[in-house]
Amino acid sequence: MKPITMHTGSLPQIPWQERPKNCAAPLWRYQDNPIIFRNPIPGVARIFNSAVIPYQDAFVGVFRGEQTDGIPFIYLGKSRDGMHWEFSPQKIRFVDEAGNPAMPLYAYDPRLVLVDDTYYVIWCQDAYGAAIGMAKTKDFETFVRLENPFLPFNRNAVLFPRKIHGKYMMLSRPSDSGHTPFGDIFLSESKDMEYWGHHRHVMGKSNRWWENVKIGGGAAPIETSEGWLLFYHGVTNTCNGFVYSIGGAILDLDEPSKVKYRCGSFLLTPEMWYEERGFVPNVCFPCATLQDADTGRIAIYYGCADSYVGLAFTTAEIAVDYICAHDAAGDDDRCDGKR
């Protein structure tokens, strides 16, 4: 294995379970999955596709709560160990810069990323079509809405955890209001977190069966000595509907629109009951990771069948080596994405 290091800081309390001796897969599931079941709080039928982050010697998260009326909103959760969660019974109340209520019509599939000293929540919402919503917080008490970064239609926005060349960087997947007959990942940059441009193509769907319909960003990229380690989702279609799997790629540290390596095989695909059976069956949807640079450990939070939250594990060396060994990046992936 290559000597891979992560530039992410120490997290000795990271949730962790050792790789089973008979497991050759690059990712392995937590044996007590799912960590969040149905009907977690009154009025919420399911929590899934959610994001967590370390905070004050514990963990905090933003969770997609599908209400019993079918409308999704974002709920706040807290945990001492990253596995057992307590949720606020009220949806997160977003405000504008003046402190006035600024709630979206709905909000789902949130990501949560720390850049400098500010935590950013990014989600999908309605802005006269599927679009990206954003907010910032420093204390997880007050959440201030930011301007929407893009026009509709767009989904799966993922912010990089640090600026690159002095600019914020964000991945997204231009979309439509349905299930997207196209689906490539793009990179955009901003000097001020308000105006976004210099859009670049990163990578598109492929002819490989598990990602031949569309792809989309997952967890925030992890900075490693080899490049930005990206866990994303790939989608195929079957006679029984879509199947969502977890894929992996490594992006160039200085020009992340360039793909250095792209794994030709999935890292995790629906196989367990909580991934195969649920409100939307056959879904493994990554939204967040925790990392400990001292040990190389990575914990991956992923949505399961639009009904549960699961946890999987790997290390930087195992994930990077597997992606490099199964590299299938093409010329269009490796270019800077500018036309």
Question: Nutshell version of this structure?
Answer:
This protein has helices at residues 273-276, 316-325, 331-334; strands spanning 28-29, 44-55, 58-67, 72-79, 86-91, 94-95, 108-115, 118-126, 130-137, 143-146, 154-159, 168-174, 185-190, 196-203, 214-217, 222-223, 228-238, 241-251, 259-262, 284-292, 297-304, 308-315. The chain has 339 residues and is mainly beta.
Describe the structure.
- The chain has 339 residues and is mainly beta.
- It is globular.
Task: Name some characteristics of this structure.
339 residues, mainly beta, 5-stranded mixed sheet, 5-stranded antiparallel sheet
In terms of topology, how is this protein built?
Elements: E1 28-29, E2 44-55, E3 58-67, E4 72-79, E5 86-91, E6 94-95, E7 108-115, E8 118-126, E9 130-137, E10 143-146, E11 154-159, E12 168-174, E13 185-190, E14 196-203, E15 214-217, E16 222-223, E17 228-238, E18 241-251, E19 259-262, H1 273-276, E20 284-292, E21 297-304, E22 308-315, H2 316-325, H3 331-334
Parallel strand pairs: 6-10
Antiparallel strand pairs: 1-22, 2-3, 3-4, 4-5, 7-8, 8-9, 9-10, 11-12, 12-13, 13-14, 15-17, 16-17, 17-18, 18-19, 20-21, 21-22
Please mark out the parts with pLDDT under 50 across 5 or more consecutive residues, or reply none. none
Distance between the termini: 36 Å
State the total count of DSSP E strands.
22
Q: If helices are DSSP runs of H or I spanning 4 or more residues, what is the number of helices?
A: 3
Strand content: over 45%
Task: Write the element-wise H/E pattern from the N-terminal end onward.
Answer: EEEEEEEEEEEEEEEEEEEHEEEHH
Give the C-alpha Rg: 18 Å
Question: Order of strands across the biggest sheet?
Answer: 6-10-9-8-7
- Could you say which overall geometry the principal axes of the C-alpha atoms support? globular
Overall pLDDT: 97
Helix content: under 10%
User: How can the largest sheet be summarized?
Assistant: 5 strands, mixed
